[in-house]
Amino acid sequence: MLSRQSAHALDPKAIKARFPLEDATVPVTVASSRVQASPLPLGAQQLPTPPSQPRARKRRDHGDDSSDEEDKERVALVVHPGTARLGSPDEEFFHKVRTIRQTIVKLGNKVQELEKQQVTILATPLPEESMKQELQNLRDEIKQLGREIRLQLKAIEPQKEEADENYNSVNTRMR
C-alpha cells in the first residue's frame, strides 16, 4: 500500500504544480504591469509565491497586524550559467584561452591561404602585381595575428610575485 505522502506525490495536480511544463509561460504581475516570465529551468527550485491581494486584504480585515513588507510582491532574478558579465577568475581565464585558440585557428587558416598563394605565384611565369600585393597583405595579417596571440598569452601568464605568493594554489599550477 502507498503511504499518504507517496500517494500525494503521485497526484498529477501536485506534479503539475511542482513541475510546470517547460513550454508554458507564466504571467507575473509586478507593480501593476503584466510581464511574461519563462518557466524555471530543469533542476531549479521554485520560490514560494507571494500572497495574493484578496488573502492579504482578508488578513488585514481580521485584525492581523502583519507588516506591509509581507504584502509586497517578491521578484527573483534567475541568472543562467555563463550569462553573467563578470564570472569567477577561472571563467575569465578559460574565456581568454578560448579567444587565444580561436585566434590560433584563424592564424592557421591564413598560413594555409598564404601557402596556396605562394604556390600559385611560383607556378605563374610572370605574376601580376595584384597577386604580389595580396601575398604581402596576407603576410601582414599573419604578423598582426601573431602579435595579438603573443599579447594575449602574456596577459594570462601569471606575474612573478603572484606565482611566488600562490605557489601552492591550484589555479596557478593549472595555468
From TrEMBL:
InterPro entries according to UniProt: SNARE (IPR010989), Syntaxin_N (IPR006011)
Region Disordered, annotated ranges: 1-22, 37-73
Gene Ontology biological process terms, A to Z: vesicle-mediated transport
SUPFAM superfamilies registered for this protein in UniProt: t-snare proteins (SSF47661)
Localization terms from the record: Membrane
Top-level taxon: Eukaryota
Coiled-coil stretches: 97-155
GO cellular component: membrane
Keyword field: Coiled coil, Membrane
Pfam family, one: Syntaxin
Keyword Membrane among UniProt keywords: yes
Gene3D superfamilies: 1.20.58.70
Entry keyword Membrane: yes
Syntaxin N-terminal domain segment(s): 85-175
Name of the protein: Syntaxin 4
Encoding gene per record: STX4
